[in-house]
TrEMBL record:
It is found in: Endomembrane system; Membrane. GO terms for molecular function: iron ion binding; L-ascorbic acid binding; procollagen-proline 4-dioxygenase activity. InterPro entries: Oxoglu/Fe-dep_dioxygenase_dom, P4HA-like, Pro_4_hyd_alph, Pro_4_hyd_alph_FE2OG_OXY, ShKT_dom. It is a single-pass membrane protein. Keywords: Dioxygenase, Iron, Membrane, Metal-binding, Oxidoreductase, Signal, Transmembrane, Transmembrane helix. SMART domains: P4Hc, ShKT. It comes from Prymnesium parvum. This is Procollagen-proline 4-dioxygenase. GO terms for cellular component: endoplasmic reticulum; membrane. Its main location: membrane. The keyword Transmembrane helix applies.
């Protein structure tokens, strides 16, 4: 079995790909009348079983006529059987559906694991509780192959052909976005609590103030000088555009955004000093953070209740760990940062900052639902602030490589699958020994 999968994953047939049910005439044409009905390669049977008679008819018709059934009429029977199988599969996929339009978004945010009782009942397709049009196996043998460990041994082939059985729904295979297994995470279990505790002791010059414990919300009454705040706004506030929430413009967020993503800002000494200051405080390399985001809230503008953790667990950079928010202006009235589930508000004052986690200290891969917050409407004046979002893994180079905010195949998925298979095998042996 493993040899077959390795052949399919490694060998590139001369390909003029056509649809699985559109290659019959081309396949017949490649087999000339009166020519011997033989296979020219010992691999023909394996290729035929993998569907290559239809996928690569020009090569298979000329070189694997016997395995493709061009001599005994079995090709027509095979095509009819596959057509019926496709109809049955489409009917089965249609029965696997979500009950809510937001299911896909919730699944990307990790809610299938965080809220399994609701999600697995109401978002069956997005949580891959059943085979759907978006996530299904392409081979009947997939379940057996997966049970035999082929998801780990031949991950690239299996991810494409056996997505459901390998539990890889919504996962894209990209070497550019596959993290180096040796890359250290930004935090481990317990590090979030430890960082906040140490920050209070290590940085008295920033005048830290505990606004909340469990979850932590830490204020800094003197993080930026007035000159630094003005300078950051000047170099990073170069191109204000309507802010996005998630993937688009929505009425829940009406501010404007400018990113520090141009050389004039990225190479600025003051910006680099502030960036290093935040990295030193959070104990996470600045390369693990997104570009600085500068925000402008004019009178009447706001950002309603939301959570900052929107990065999939298996994205190139992993979840957002921390938000470090700096206030770059005073506001005459309104504009507070309100933590809606903690009943605390932080008033905007130039040069101050606030830091909070987006994940749990005991399990940094799980979102801390308690740190939902909102930017209250500005009633008088203009509010300027700056977000610095810190991730679990390196962000800057991954962004340069073209990765985006979605799940990619990562090596820790293999370790998780191996562990699960071993646990299942141990459980089965235990049950067998008691019967």
């Amino acid at each position: 079995m493993r040899l077959l999968l390795l052949l399919l994953a490694a060998v590139r047939l001369p390909s003029h790909r056509v649809g699985a049910f559109g290659g019959l005439q081309q396949l017949r044409a490649m087999h000339r009348e009166g020519t011997p009905c033989v296979d020219e390669s010992a691999s023909c049977e394996a290729f035929a079983l993998a569907g290559e008679c239809f996928n690569n008819p020009s090569f298979m018709g000329a070189s694997c006529s016997h395995s493709c059934g061009l001599c005994d009429g079995s090709l027509e029977r095979r095509e009819a059987q596959e057509r019926e199988a496709r109809k049955a599969a489409e009917a089965r996929y249609a029965a696997c559906a979500d009950e809510h339009a937001a299911c896909e978004l919730w699944a990307r945010q990790g809610e299938c694991a965080n809220n399994p009782s609701f999600m697995r009942r109401s978002c069956r397709a997005s949580c891959a509780e059943c085979e759907s049009a978006a996530c299904h196996d392409s081979r009947e043998e997939c379940a057996a192959w997966a049970a035999a460990g082929e998801c780990e041994s031949n991950s690239q082939f299996m991810l494409k052909q056996c997505t459901f059985s390998c539990e890889m729904c919504g996962i894209e295979y990209s070497e550019a976005c596959r993290r180096d297994p040796k890359m250290p995470p930004g935090v481990r279990k317990g590090d979030v609590d430890a960082m906040f505790t140490e920050a209070i002791e290590r940085f008295p010059q920033f005048k830290p103030r505990v606004l909340h414990r469990d979850p932590w919300v830490l204020g800094f009454d003197s993080f930026l000088s007035a000159g630094e705040a003005d300078h950051l706004l000047r170099v990073a506030g170069h191109d204000f555009q309507r802010s996005l929430a998630g993937d688009g413009v929505t009425p829940v967020r009406t501010s404007s955004t400018s990113w520090c993503n141009v050389p004039s800002c990225l190479n600025d000494p003051t910006f680099q000093e502030v960036r290093a200051r935040i990295s030193n405080l959070t104990k996470v390399p600045w390369q693990y953070a997104e570009h600085l985001q500068v925000l402008q809230y004019k009178q009447g503008q706001f950002y309603h209740d939301h959570h900052d953790q929107n990065a999939p667990r298996h994205s190139a950079w992993g979840p957002r760990l921390y938000t470090f928010y700096m206030y770059l202006s005073d506001v005459e009235k309104g504009g507070e940062t309100r933590f809606t589930r903690l009943n605390i508000s932080v008033a905007p004052r130039k040069g101050t900052a606030v830091l909070w986690p987006s994940v749990l200290s005991e399990n940094p891969l799980v979102t801390d639902e308690r740190t939902y917050h909102e930017a209250v409407d500005v009633e008088e004046g203009v509010k300027y602030g700056a977000n610095f979002w810190v991730h679990m893994y390196e962000f800057q180079e991954a962004l340069q490589r073209g990765c985006d905010n979605r799940d990619y195949f990562q090596d820790d998925m293999l370790a998780a699958r191996v562990g699960k298979r071993r646990a299942d095998a141990t459980k089965q042996r235990s049950v067998a020994s008691t019967t």
